[in-house]
Design a protein that fits this description.
single chain; 160 residues; mainly alpha; 6 helices
Length: 160
């Protein structure tokens, strides 16, 4: 994420000094400025890690890019989603990739999403109503109803 420092400085000047003092305005501007600063630092750290962990990204060739340019409400989103279905040919830019333009941060986001999906699968296998029973040999047995287990096995057989 690149920050236009001149425009940011002008906006801050107008927010803080361009009008008579109001504590509420100063607190709101300061709060959002601190959020922007934290966000910018996270993206800068992610980009620095990209240069260390993935130096080959600078040598990546982009062959025959496709730009979708048209008037509003003319089907551009539909076309973009249609092209995005073919991941072998097209690499669509997803929303989180525009917000966090860092390979490292994107890998972290993908790992968290995968862990979340695996957690959902785990809890669908062993719902909260399951009971855990200690057996005589020291192992544990988890009891849950047969219908939820069948449904979960069907879920596990489909790819994520």
């Amino acid at each position: 994420m690149y920050l236009n420092l001149g425009l940011t400085a002008k906006a801050l000047y107008l927010s803080y000094l361009g009008r008579p003092f109001q504590l509420r305005r100063w607190l709101i501007v300061t709060f959002f400025l601190s959020l922007l600063t934290c966000f910018w630092v996270v993206v800068a750290i992610g980009r620095a890690l990209d240069h260390i962990l993935y130096p080959e990204f600078r040598r990546q060739k982009i062959r025959q890019p496709v730009f979708i340019i048209a008037p509003p409400r003319s089907g551009t989103t539909f076309l973009q989603k249609l092209l995005a279905k073919n991941r072998g040919t097209f690499a669509p830019v997803l929303m989180y990739q525009t917000i966090f333009p860092s390979i490292t941060i994107q890998k972290i986001i993908q790992s968290v999403a995968l862990a979340s999906r695996q957690r959902e699968v785990f809890f669908s296998i062993f719902p909260h109503g399951s009971s855990v029973t200690a057996l005589a040999d020291g192992t544990e047995c988890i009891k849950c109803d047969l219908q939820s287990r069948k449904k979960t096995m069907a879920t596990l057989s489909t790819p994520l």
